[in-house]
Batch of 2 targets.
Target 1
Amino acid sequence: MSFPEPLQQLIGNRLDRELNRKSRCHPLNGYLPQCPSAPLFIKREDELNANAVGTKQRKYLSLIPTLEHSGNCRIILIGSAHSNNVLGLTQLLRSRGLDVSALIKTPGNNALTGNHLLLSMLLPDDRMAYVSPREWPEVAQIAQREADRLSRHGVRAVIISEGGDSEAVLPGILTLAADVQRNSSDLGLEFRDIWTDSGTGISAIGLLLGMRLLGLTRPRVHITQIAGDPEEFRQRYARFETWLERLTGSAIPDPRPEVRFLRPASAAAYGSINKTILDESWRIARETGLLMDPVYSVKHLYTVKCEMQLQAPDGPQLILYNGGTLGLCGFQSALASRKPMV
Ligand SMILES: *Cc1c(COP(=O)(O)O)cnc(C)c1O
């Protein structure tokens, strides 16, 4: 697939040729308030990669080629025991024969479940090191010390920050805006609103910067902040803006879409789950046919529902499903305990 200019020229040859970069978009049936003047669509970012959570794939589109060509012998990943990023990247890198080690925040629960179990299946003990929650604020320095130690043994190592926060993901995350434009023209309609969720905010930043490059000031973008706050988002946005100016070699067009931040409507603390979120997971599955991960996607869709109940939407609406069914596997017993009566 080629992209509209100026994106094609900018990123066309910086992306992995084999990884998926197109996701489909279809009507969303059930769960959200249905109204003829506001048709609802869902973009299936979850289908980009069956083994990694959807939105991460766009970061990998450009991160993987950069790592493959970097000449580094070891890639050090950082994240929680249940990090979707560490699990997704580990699979892609190991399957390409690259040597990976992970610095993992020691989980509160030492039963091997969910992503922690899957990660342990992929990496032997000598490639997993645990850092206590108390020491976690210094994890970047701990990783650097490990890289220095390896280098004294002649092993060049590169460190990937939590959530994949790096300049190398920029070309990949710009693809989302072009893919939404493709969906919109295939469906023959213009979305009035996009509803997405964010953790580090990097994927949403990619959408917003991609829209600016393409000269799009619509649709309006609503962001459910599963983690972080608007100030943190703005700081990261400014950093990616600088990187984008370096990539394009010129100033980015100023016109930009309107952005609104939303707090999760329930279980607002990052990573937390409660009865409402578990019950909504069941309700979404029964009403829409979609199996969604509770930590991001269910919280997001529930928040969108609450917002739409407060203020009825008008015009075509696009909801992004950025997560994936794999994200359910750490919650099997919690979900089983909330099986509805009817
Ligand atoms: C990482 C992730 C996000 C958010 O991505 P960011 O780019 O960090 O904002 C959303 N949903 C799921 C399921 C994720 O794993």
Note: The radius of gyration is 20 Å.
Target 2
Amino acid sequence: MAITRGFTGRGRATRDPRLPPGQYDAKDDWPVLNAEATPRIGTDRWTFTIEGLVDRPRSWTWDEIHALPGSRYSGDIHCVTTWSKLGMTFDGVSVDTLLDAVGVQPEAKFVMATAHTGYTTNLPLEDVTGGKAWVVWQADGRPLTVEHGGPARLLVPHLYFWKSAKWASGLRVMAEDEQGFWERNGYHDRGDPWLEQRYQGD
Ligand SMILES: Nc1nc2c(c(=O)[nH]1)N[C@H]1C(S)=C(S)[C@@H](COP(=O)(O)O)O[C@H]1N2
Ligand SMILES: [Mo]
């Protein structure tokens, strides 16, 4: 039986049950976190490429990815530095739609998400399939600003936000796990905020 979370007694302020352990609600603030300088990638130059263990590797241009059926995420995001934002809306395309187009091979178990800047982050294939990951270009109904990864970023909201590569350039589909930028620098390989998988060993 489920235990009711966050209710601490009559008349007391309750912790929002959408907040994972150790997180706070950033409310109207949306912090910007970058390891690299903010790049300016025009939509005329932006592409998203899926390669590796797929039957038909391919790239989508800005116009081509917009021609695919759209998909929306409405929900929360959680940064490992402890801020969360609740009830956001992102619009783009489901990663399922992109992977269906290329045909994932049976040995595939992981992906490396890449960015036009060289940033990388690794994910189990099952964390980017089944309606859990998107390539998005709108946040709360407006074009994604360049600080937040525009023209388009990856969105994997059920994991800590470092998995959501800004200025997304593609996915490399792999049989074995390989570490990305923050994972090599001590962050967890999976990063589930409900399990507080912040660092290697958590
Ligand atoms: N390309 C790139 N993507 C990135 C990062 C980065 O440094 N470079 N930082 C990650 C981290 S640690 C977080 S918390 C989020 C921050 O996204 P935001 O700046 O839109 O809040 O982007 C993630 N994606
Ligand atoms: Mo982060």
Note: The first strand starts at residue 24 and ends at 25.
